[in-house]
Amino acid sequence: MRRICALLCCLSLLCFPVSAEESHKYVALTFDDGPSGRYTSRLLDGLKERGAKATFLLCGYRIKEYPAETQRIIDEGHEVGNHGYSHRNMQELGRRQIAQEILDTEALLPENCRIRFLRPPGGCCSDGVRQVAEARNLAILNWSVDPRDWAVQNAAAVEQAVLKNVTDGDVILLHDMSDSSVTAALHIIDQLAAQGYEFVTASELAALRGCIPKAGKIYHHFLPQ
Fold this sequence. Notes:
Blueprint: H1 2-14, H2 20-23, E1 25-32, H3 38-50, E2 55-58, H4 60-65, H5 67-75, E3 79-82, H6 95-106, E4 117-118, H7 127-135, E5 139-141, H8 149-152, H9 155-165, E6 171-175, H10 179-194, E7 197-199, H11 202-208, E8 218-219
Parallel strand pairs: 1-2, 1-6, 1-7, 2-3, 4-5, 5-8
Helix pairs in contact: 3-10, 6-7, 9-10
């Protein structure tokens, strides 16, 4: 009788549902250099249709040019990060210049827009960038998957490069600056969603993995623990 009871207990454990954290895979789509006007609008339409969230690393001079698109990004629940005002290589700048790039960008954003991440253009970091980011209470967000969509300009090639390399917890680098990049991004969402992936902001991905990003520290991904 004891053996039968033990067997029934083991079988019952097999019937318990797997937790959401165990059964779901997550990635963070990130888009650099925008907003861009019609490309960003088309991307936002596609994200909304698919229920996907993303992180937009925005340049100050483009926020100034496209305030409506910037506001729409925020209103629709996406995350905004700081990509510097002018898109200059921050490795070549002094700390005061780096700080000004960050401050000039943040000054153009609504007061209720909380910035958690800095992504220096090109991911080019230095001691100065890290020190300024720490002083501004910003973590540095780089990436783990880069299909070089800005150079390839081929949606199918970009899509395949991501699908071939992506894993749970990756941060994917893309841009909302061309039709090919936006087309690739939406196809990537469709393909990965069919594989069980969910699309969350970088901050959400960090939280799902129990990570509190530290100011001045560089993050490339948020892998399962």
